[in-house]
Design a protein that fits this description.
single chain, alpha/beta, Rossmann fold, six-stranded parallel beta sheet, about 15% strand, globular
Length: about 575
């Protein structure tokens, strides 16, 4: 690709930007800093014309979250940066959240030149490589321009291959300011030249063993995790479930993997049908799932411990974690499902489909109980409204292709009760799952809106988590992004307050907030804002927010309540001897 660079001397900043463009990167989130100026100058001189742009944020943590959300929304790598010292250290929370959810990110950090080490230079002497080591797949430090192409390739390979995740590229100022020679630019390779493009398939003997085990199953169940989304295996997993009438549920990371309703049992174990399936299934097909807190670790009394588990994962370290397996297959979810379908089409007894179809019909009938529970909840009209009522009104208003971002602690747990009851479109639900990170809401909404400018993006957040990155409302206003932020306001750190309620005799300590006028805060940034407390006012307020064509904040009063899912977690903890028996 021809790039029309300035006639100025080509430096390491130019070389890095050329490498990023070569990888298809179009957007970088961050704050400019002294050691980063050569990168920004290259983008300003010629990079924007070639399709790469910067997004100025108001805190590096938020920039990291935006890059994370960009990756979740597009399936591509997200890119963020921070200058030496405080810029890099501010990125830590965002990188940790992405790492916990296996989100591919290229985290670029500046560093002072080695000649300035140990002299007390401003923002120097921080061991950034060690700081990033526990939360990234790879850390690479570069001192000279000629090292940049290979360093970028190493980082991209690590981020995008196997179980995906963030990587850290540290660029000393010497690497950016010194001259880059023509031969340095010739070291830039296309992705196909240095990393695998094809998806790794599963061992054929493992595939055959899995099919043989399925032949004996009376009540199989598919569980789809985030690995299905990462491998873009939506069509394949839906075909497997639909063709053989195998009931299917997801982890919260896997919401969006299932797009059809006929065999769906839920995305969270508070769904009655999903719990029934977990208790009664005899063979589990697990694709790209972490058997973690999102499905109560596969533990009793929720899950039947006599079940046979066929576990498919691209990461060997996930195999057998918290549950012993009967068949383990290492491979990409999409490739393995295709292999299973081919093997099943060749050798599978057709009579089994009738038996599995009856099992699925039984679970679909059980799903009606969830609908009945919602109808009961909607009859409750006291104020402050129940959290579920707010979430129902919001979800019932939104179009099917709305992009939903969830922040906060307990409001996420309440929201998932309803969101998980029916399938969603792929890559339309965004949440820091494994880290349970607060403060992602506004940055995630910005990142998703930039990735999908034609979609309605709405963020549900708690009043506590709203203030973590409230400064990014200015970013949304400056970029003219019509995101909608809905604050579920119970004047508390709700999840911790529920814990104190359930396990500490209602001795509430440091969990209550004073009333705060969040609407005025939003308006001061230039957003549209409303405060309301009645369920019937939610839909008209959402309409007005959309019509404003501005970033909008709706501050909605709700009652403090304990999410039902916390009781499930309590069952697990008591089973482990915590909080008594």
């Amino acid at each position: 690709m021809f790039i029309n660079m300035s006639k100025q001397m080509k430096n390491g900043g130019d070389l890095l930007v050329k490498c990023l463009i070569n990888e298809g990167i179009t957007t970088i989130f961050g704050i400019v800093g002294g050691e980063l100026l050569k990168i920004y100058d290259a983008i300003e001189r010629w990079g924007r014309e070639e399709g790469i742009d910067t997004v100025m944020v108001r805190h590096e943590q938020a920039g990291g979250h935006m890059a994370d959300a960009w990756a979740r929304a597009t399936g591509e790598i997200g890119v963020c940066l921070g200058t030496a010292g405080p810029g890099v250290s501010h990125l830590i929370p965002a990188v940790a959240a992405a790492n916990a959810d296996s989100i591919p990110m290229l985290v670029i950090g500046a560093q002072v030149g080695r000649m300035f080490e140990n002299i007390g230079m401003l923002q120097g002497d921080l061991d950034q490589m060690s700081l990033m080591k526990p939360i990234t797949k790879l850390q690479v430090s570069v001192e000279e321009p000629h090292e940049i192409p290979y360093a970028v390739q190493r980082c991209m390979k690590a981020a995008m291959c196997g179980r995906r995740g963030p990587v850290f590229l540290e660029l000393r100022e010497t690497a950016l300011v010194r001259e880059a020679k023509e031969e340095d630019f010739k070291k830039i390779l296309t992705p196909e030249q240095y990393r695998p493009i094809f998806r790794p398939a599963g061992n054929i003997e493992g595939i055959k063993k899995a099919v043989e085990l399925l032949k004996s199953a009376k009540k199989p169940l598919i569980v789809a995790g985030g690995g299905v989304l990462a491998s873009e295996a939506f069509n394949e997993i839906n075909k497997l479930s639909e063709t053989y009438k195998i009931p299917i549920g997801t982890t919260s990371s896997g919401i969006g993997a299932v797009t059809m309703d006929e065999t769906f049992v839920g995305g969270k174990l508070t769904a009655i049908a999903y719990r029934r399936a977990a208790a009664e299934a005899d063979v589990i097909l697990s694709f790209g799932c972490k058997w973690d807190h999102t499905i109560i670790y596969g533990s009793s009394p929720i899950w039947n411990q006599n079940q046979k588990l066929i576990q498919v994962d691209i990461d060997p370290s996930e195999i057998g974690k918290n549950r012993p397996v009967s068949v383990a297959i290492i491979g990409d979810a999409k490739s393995v499902i295709i292999q299973l379908l081919e093997e099943m089409e060749k050798s599978f007894p057709k009579g089994t489909i009738t038996e599995w179809s009856q099992w699925n019909d039984y679970l679909q009938d059980v799903r009606k109980q969830d609908k009945n529970q919602i109808e009961k909840m909607l009859k409750f009209d006291k104020l402050p409204m129940k959290p579920h009522r707010l979430i129902y009104e919001m979800l019932d208003f939104l179009p099917d292709d709305a992009q939903i971002v969830i922040d906060g602690g307990d409001i996420y747990v309440f929201a998932l009760d309803l969101i998980s009851l029916k399938p969603r479109l792929p890559r339309s639900f965004f949440r820091s799952v494994s880290m349970g990170h607060l403060g992602t809401g506004i940055p995630y909404a910005i990142g998703v809106q930039m990735a999908k400018p034609d979609k309605l993006v709405i963020c549900l957040t708690g009043d506590g988590s709203f203030l973590f990155n409230v400064q990014e409302l200015e970013t949304a206003v400056r970029l003219n992004l019509p995101i909608i932020i809905v604050i579920a306001n119970n004047c508390a750190w709700g999840m911790i307050k529920s814990n104190q309620k359930l396990n500490f005799g209602k001795r509430y300590c440091d969990v209550d907030f004073p009333p705060i006028n969040y609407t005025e805060i939003a308006r001061s940034f230039g957003c549209y804002g409303e405060t309301l407390n009645k369920p019937e006012d939610i839909r008209p307020a959402l309409e007005r927010a959309i019509q404003s064509k501005k970033p909008a904040v709706l501050d909605i009063e709700i009652a403090f309540e304990t999410p039902p899912a916390m009781k499930l977690l309590g069952l697990f903890k008591k089973n482990k001897g915590l909080f008594g028996n």
